[in-house]
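Q: Okay, next protein. This is Rrf2 family transcriptional regulator from Peptostreptococcus porci. I've checked the sequence twice, so it should be correct. Can you predict the 3D structure?
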Amino acid sequence: MSEFIIALHALVCLAHDGCSRSSEELSANLCTNPVRIRKVMSKCKKIGLVKTKAGVNGGYIISKSGKEITLRDIYDAVNIPLIDTRWHSGDISSECIIASGMGEYVTELFSLLNDKVLVVLGEITLEDVEHRLMSIKERKQLEICK
């Protein structure tokens, strides 16, 4: 999940002005380590969401406009289920129908929920996220003025 958030934040930053940003610049904005940025951005580069530029003004550059990149694209890059658990209740060897089946049921449920989430993510673009962030900023400024 954190890789999805890192990729989303970094890509919105890159889409905002279209400039290249180093992993150090992105890490300062995201409040995380540049190594984590590089790890996640390499996944984004692999599927064509960003390009890299070497040199003094080098870094990551967004490959498409914010209108063309969906949150589903970001999910596909990081490839980590958004809804997941490593722990399951019950015991598959139990004679109790509830205890023996709950783990399998929860796995099926989370799979279904992830499928539904992917549909929603496919409908939201980076441009939509940036517009929402602007609305949040405007609302906060109004609250400060009150």
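A: Here is a summary of the prediction. Helices lie at 2-17, 23-30, 34-46, 71-78, 97-121, 126-145. The mean pLDDT is 91.
Q: Noted. On to the next one.
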